[in-house]
Amino acid sequence: MALSKLDNLYRAVILDHSSNPRHAGELQTGCMVDLNNPTCGDVIRLTVELDGDKISNIAFSGHGCTISTASASMMTVAVLGKTKAQALELAKLFSAMVTGEEDERQEALGDAQFLAGVSKFPARVKCSTLAWNALKKALDEGYAENNLVHGQ
Questions:
Q1: Phi, psi (5° rounding) for residue 83?
Q2: Which domain holds residue 71?
Q3: Sign of torsion, CA 26 131 12 1?
Q4: CA separation for the pair 52, 131 (Å, rounded)
Q5: Based on C-alpha coordinates, what's the Rg of the chain?
Q6: In angstroms, how far is CA 152 from the centroid of its own chain?
Q7: Residue 114 near residue 94, CB atoms below 8 Å
Q8: CA–CA separation, 152 and 133 (whole Å)
Q9: Cα separation of 50 and 52, whole Å?
Q10: CATH no. for residue 43?
Q11: Residues 6+ apart with CB under 8 A from 131
């Protein structure tokens, strides 16, 4: 596939996730984390529900740029059904990818691997990692601190 066609595919996938984000909304239960990117004003609220050690449900809300929204959507698809350890490994892999590190395991990120080009735009790295940082905070700290939202 010609490079320009590949670039167009990447753009189309990113625009699709931004325009039609998967798992957008809020959950009534689970661990809720709010994060923002003060550099550009992106804001995310991520809620993660666990069933044992597996992510059984996940949703995000807020507002952000195309990259931030697409990344959040891609992240929710990539980690749903994964164990905490698997999801944290994907978050680590994603962060390395968008800072320019190459790894043959990037395919495990699903559509999120299409954001590898963000590494060429350092100002956009924070946009792309916002949702993934919220996920890490929820899984690393949120459940440990009992930062749970209970249904009404």
A1: -75, 165
A2: 3-149
A3: negative
A4: 22
A5: 15
A6: 27
A7: no
A8: 27
A9: 6
A10: 3.90.1010.10
A11: 44, 46, 60, 68, 71, 72, 75, 76
pLDDT tens series, the chain, 152 aa: 555 776 888 899 999 999 999 999 999 999 999 999 998 899 999 999 999 999 999 999 999 999 999 999 999 999 999 999 999 999 999 999 999 998 999 999 999 999 999 999 999 999 999 999 999 999 998 776 777 776 53
105: its two tokens: 């395991």
Q: Looking at the DSSP assignment, which residues form a beta bridge with residue 60?
A: 24, 46
Per the structure, the count of domains in the chain is: 1
Which neighbouring-strand residues pair with 69? Answer: none
Cα-Cα end-to-end distance for the chain: 52
Instruction: Supply the pTM of this predicted model.
Output: 0.92
Beta strands 148-149; 30-37: pairing state: antiparallel
Give the residues across from 114 on adjacent strands: none
CB neighbours of residue 35 within 10 Å = 18
Burial class for 95, CB neighbours closer than 10 Å (0-12, 13-18, 19+): middle
